[in-house]
Prior knowledge:
single chain, alpha+beta, 4-stranded antiparallel sheet, 5 helices
Amino acid sequence: MANDMNTQDDQALADEWAAALEETGDAGQDDIDALLAADAAGSRSNRLPMEEFGSVPKNNDPVSLEGPNLDVILDIPVSISMEVGSTDINIRNLLQLNQGSVIELDRLAGEPLDVLVNGTLIAHGEVVVVNEKFGIRLTDVISPSERIKKLR
């Protein structure tokens, strides 16, 4: 019974495809390629030059938070994370990890942590405790112009 339903569904799908192909008429791949080429040639002459985001400095001037362009994005949430360090291990060692295992990282004790916003380094800092919660005190913030240079 279930096999008959699958066969009927397959036949209905095949009929829909056949009807859709008939609607396209005699248009072949050559016709489609010609239309795409004509559209591409026509749109090149009608295209406007790309405008850069208004807050990006064109001559390495410092970036400011002033201006109407940034007002639109100031309330967008971003993910901020602190990276203590990293290391590479093979899957065999990863599977052997259990409670109490120690993983050696590539940083020395007391070395500043990386502060990342959406995966992009923006500052370095040190761990502090505030009201029994961990926090981070920024010790070195990368300038906005340097951050923009890294994005390019």
